[in-house]
From TrEMBL:
This is Sodium/bile acid cotransporter. It comes from the Eukaryota. It holds the Pfam family SBF_like. Coiled coil: none annotated.
Amino acid sequence: RNRKQEQTNILHKIKQSSTCKTPISMCRNSTEKDEKTNLLVNSKTYGMTNSVEATDCSSNEAKLQDEEPPWPSRFTSQLREGYKAHSLLISMVASIILAYVYPPLGAHYLHPKITSTWVSVMLMFIISGLCIKTEELSQASHRMGFNIFVQFFNYVVVSLVVMVFSRLLIAVDFLPQSLADGMVICSCLPVTVSMILVLTTSSNGDDAAAVFAAVFGALTGTFVTPGLVLTYIGVKGNIDIIRVLIKLSIRVLLPLLVGQLLQKFYAPTQDFVAEHRKSLKGVQEWCLVFIIYCVFCHTFETGIETSVGSLLLMTFLQIVVLISVMALAWVCLRVLFRDEPKLCVTGLFACTQKTISLGVPLINAIYENDPNAGIYTLPLIVWHPMQLVIGSAMAPYLVHFVKQQEDQLGRKPLIVQKLSSESIV
């Protein structure tokens, strides 16, 4: 009996030990699992903390970017943007001021009779010949009625209006003779190329008609403008009209032809122009600024001056004349081309815009030895930026006009493709 009792006790202890081992192992396993879980949780928490910190950093950077820069930086950036938008006008004004400070530099030392009247002008029009796509002229050549009206209005109607107005101003002693003659010379110039393309596109006009009007005007202006100027104002001094036309043909038409031939027959030219379009336009602008600088150096050296009041009055009168001829052109276009709203928009710009890059060399060629040559360019310097300002302000209203008219006529509006300014002619 005692032996059985001992065996029973031993079995009982064995059972107790076996039942105790299982919970211990389970506890160990659960402890390991808990440690792993804690590590995972901690790692996730750490990762979330890092992501939160990264998010905070990015949000802080965004806040710093959204915050306005200091006042000097903002002012500098605004000046830079303003210069980019109006670089040509600002450069022209600066060149006139520099010419006033020391006239002999541009009048003699820089050899203007070679560098200004020949090299700069020819370089400008070689670039124009490279950039103008004359193959697009065929797209608008069938609009002969519109093209004839545009050229007639731009050359004849505008010049007649300005001629009569300027002679009245001289008769009542309201404006000096030189500034009044400058207004007439400005009115005889052909249409600009790049500006009419940009404004026509932004106003949803007829792009092909704009190209034809601009290029045809640039080609004919070499002969038509001198004839009109000498008809209205007369021959002043020793001006040989045949000699003037020969000089203009060599300085303007020959470089244009060379540029066109290079574009047509030398394939790498087109790639070069496409790659360096902005740089080429910049070269044109600086050539024009240099020409204006030399012209005004000659003007200031001879002692020809005009009052500030006369300049302000001329500026105001030029703006009034520009708005008036635009209104007259719009009335005529609406009567003659009532069912062609796109042509009306194109004609509004083609009938009234004047080129400064061809105008300054023309004035310089006709009045090369005239001390008033610089004064003659002032009305053009006023007209040129104002036609861009007024045209840009009218563009949204003209887009609405074209859409409304085409809806009434039951036409589907065409997709307008944005054109870049290829030349400053």
